[in-house]
Amino acid sequence: MVIFFFFFVMLVVAMCSYIYAWWKSAVVWKRPRVLMYHMVREHIKGAKFNKLRVTPAEFEKQVAWMKADGFHFVTMQELQANWGKHPEKTVAITFDDGYLDNLEHAFPILEKYQAKATIYVVVDRHDRDWSTYKKAHHNSGELAREPKLSDVQVQQLAHSGLVEIASHTLTHANLDKLDDTQCFMELSESKQKLEELTAQPVTSFAYPFGIYSQRDVKIAKQVGYLNAVTTKEGIDGLNPDFLQLQRIKISGKDSMFAVKLRLKLGNRDGK
Fold this sequence. Notes:
alpha/beta, 8-stranded parallel beta sheet, two-stranded parallel sheet, 10 helices, 10 strands, 16% strand
């Protein structure tokens, strides 16, 4: 009985928190939103990383709502090049890592609604369980088993007119654990290899795990990236640091209400 009462109180508190957050004023819509996704696929029962998996049905609901609500979809290159000149409700959809479902499940939805996106591709992405690079005990192999895009499929997306291919390093490295030479190689060689693969400039970058230092920001600028995203949640103002842009995390556990709240406030509670 005590346990039931405890969970009831927690539910009420959560609901009140959501209601309070909903009535908070939106961050001005002239400030663009950058959304962070990983996979678009069904959840795996009992899996650790289901928060990285947004189901195709939920992803379509989200994109359809944004389209109907007047959002303007851009790539990160377009966003950076036109910052301050874009219309209200500009949004950049981004995907990290380069999973096959980005093509099989997300792209048909993007195409249906003519929504642009940016995919941050790990160059050496096959058979890697990079979750262990952040925390050694994340050694289930779950992410290594997820199918990744082939090089041909990366080219297909790059030439679709809807998708920008961007860099996520060579190996999804934890940059904090690398020396200067290794960090330079991860950022510069991934850029070069993706440019060779796509025959297009690669000027957008995402810091793996959102772990980076000012050294890494300097190297990103040095090797020619014009914008880079972090995992820091929020909505940047009209004069941002283009090499440390914030994003809004979209979780596979978010309801549609939570997604709308995140776009309105920059995160779920507006703090």
